[in-house]
Amino acid sequence: MSAAHALLRPVLRAALTAVFLLSGALKLAAPDRFLFDLQAFGFVPYPLAYTTAFLLPWLEVVAAAALWSPPFRRGGAGVLAIMTAVFIVFIGTAAALGLDADCGCFGDWFVFPNPAAHIAFNTALLAALGYTWWKR
């Protein structure tokens, strides 16, 4: 393994952990805001949105922490990759339908300027998660 790869893995894990811990923590701090944001898209019925608003942040936090535990690293990266891929489809569909709703990913702390930037950011996350999963 090259020195670049040896350095890249922990740097990517740190960046991914920071993003998903921050996102999860902000949602945990204001689950009602995240529920409101989910409902604004109108894709899911209220009971599913309610359940998602309360469970997804915990899943993000636990999966992000798993990136640092060798036996659970691939599982954490896989869970986060699946969530991110679904979210890319979610944002793309919303954009195609002309919906102008905030995803609630980072609460009021950060709002993406447009769907293309949002999809690009999530695609970069997905690539980093794929690398993390592949390179254990």
Provide a descriptive summary of the structure in words.
By secondary structure, this protein is an all-alpha fold. The protein has one domain. Helices cover 76% and strands 0% of the residues. The protein contains five helices and no strands. The chain is globular and about 45 Å long. The mean pLDDT is 89.
Q: Main attributes?
A:
mainly alpha
In short:
With 136 residues, the protein is an all-alpha fold. 76% of the residues lie in helices and 0% in strands.
The profile of the biggest β sheet is: none
| Helix segment tally | 5
Fraction of residues in β-strands: under 5%
**Which runs of at least 5 residues are low in confidence (pLDDT < 50)?**
none
Structural class: mainly alpha
Topology:
Layout: H1 3-29, H2 31-41, H3 46-66, H4 73-96, H5 115-135
Helix pairs in contact: 1-2, 1-3, 1-5, 2-3, 3-4, 4-5
